[in-house]
Amino acid sequence: MATPALLFAGRYTNCGLAQQRWCLLRSAAMHLVAETRPQVVVTRELGKNAKLIKELGNQGISCLELPLIEHKEGPDLKKLASTLCDNTFDWIVITSPEAGLVFLDAWKSAEFPNVQIGVVGSGTARVFQNIVQSNDNLLKIGFLPSKERSLSERGFQVTRLNTYSTVSVHEVNQAMLAEAALAPVVAVASPSAVRAWANIISKFERWNGALACIGETSASAAREAGLQKIYYPENPGFEGRWMQSIMEALRSQDSFQT
Fold first, then answer.
1. Residue 15 contacts by C-beta under 8 Å, 6 or more apart in sequence?
2. Is the N or the C terminus of the chain less surrounded, counting Cβ atoms within 10 Å?
3. How confident is the model at residue 103 (pLDDT cuts 50, 70, 90)?
4. Exposed (0-12), middle (13-18) or buried (19+): which is 152, by Cβ within 10 Å?
């Protein structure tokens, strides 16, 4: 949401009534600008913030979309389809919604082999919902908790494929960035977004906002980056938990009243 630009043009008369009118108009203008500042900056890849923006909007919270990360092809992406064709796995574990989308493309290229999927987090599970209902049981979904000990330590033979990577965006709109720096809360969904934001605010003299992280991994990255006001759920995921952390961060900044 762009901050309104206001232009005051005219002849100034040095008299009591004119001065009062000027002060009233200036005060009203500053109040309007303050009201239209975003309360939360959302930072996922462009086009992937819509659901969070809608959920926050339903609570009367204004947002600014400022993508800080983008996804790039990982070194093992080209191996994925052939790996599915040539090997049989007891479980295939998908660790994020983006990984789920990448996997589904490769699964279709491999001509829909019969596989059993373990998904980490409710957001990742949603990627597979429609597919599961229409694939004649070729793809079965199991659920894993968000926190897992090493699978290798539990006796599994693990093959890891890094099918995508998350990197900071190359360019950030400077006008939007200046507006984002005034927002009380920034919502981040990955360590890469945390590092990108920490790098950005290092160029500002001071940032007093709060960071609402999607989970503990992002929160740990925020602590390592030296950020102070960090809010996060114990278990990552979209279903209410991240929202609760965002609301808590807003309340800490006196930016939301229940």
1. none
2. C
3. very high
4. exposed
